[in-house]
Amino acid sequence: MDMTERSQLVWWITTQLVLTLVQSLVLAVIVRSVVLSFGQLVSIGSAWAVALIAVAAVRVQRLALPRTGSRRELKRRRLQADRERASAGAAARAREPVAALPETVDRRFRRLARHTDRLTYAVVATRHYESGVRPVLTELARDRLRRHHGMDMTAEPERARELMGDDLWQGLTSTRAQPPTTTDLSRWLTALERLAPEQMGPEPVSTPSWRPR
């Protein structure tokens, strides 16, 4: 240890001792005032001795603990470590091979997504309903009339209209100036379900939302 380092060490020790004495003296005065307020007598020397021990213990503890930064810095480091672990886990999962769906299941999901998109756009623009949704609903009605009622929709339009109801018939056969609403589609889908009596359960009380079959 050279002279410069020795001088710095002596200065640091002196500073710590002076700070300890000053802090303990201030604490002793405060403690003595509090004790006197309760009617108890205590000498300044006794109070200073107790305060000196307490302040010295706190300073030694601070010097013994490693300097790891403020609480905010510790919290930031923990959050950063959590993000790194999460990113590493996500990267590991992304590298894992994903089992492909069977071809038939994948095809059915694609078809369901396509019909969902068509229904979504049908309530926005008439052309989407006319080109994408009405042909599908018409084919469903034609198929159910043929399988469950033994008739052809084109050959027997009057009977088909009687079975389907005026509302569904108009929705499938008339050109619309405005796109249908979700309520319209809900009514028509319910009417289509009624064309297959064995698939119908109890009469629903209300139909707040529609769902493509």
Report on the structure:
The protein is mainly α and 213 residues long. The protein has two domains: 3-64; 103-199, no CATH class. The protein contains eight helices and no strands. Helix 4 packs across helix 5. The radius of gyration is 42 Å and the shape is rod-shaped. The model is unreliable at 200-213 (pLDDT under 50).
What is the gist of this entry?
The protein is an all-alpha fold and 213 residues long.
How would you summarize the topology of this molecule?
Elements: H1 3-37, H2 44-64, H3 71-95, H4 103-122, H5 126-149, H6 157-164, H7 166-173, H8 182-194
Helix pairs in contact: 1-2, 4-5, 6-7
Helix/strand-derived category reads: mainly alpha
The residue-averaged pLDDT reads 78
Quantity of strands, as a count: 0
Shape field: rod-shaped
Radius of gyration: 42 Å
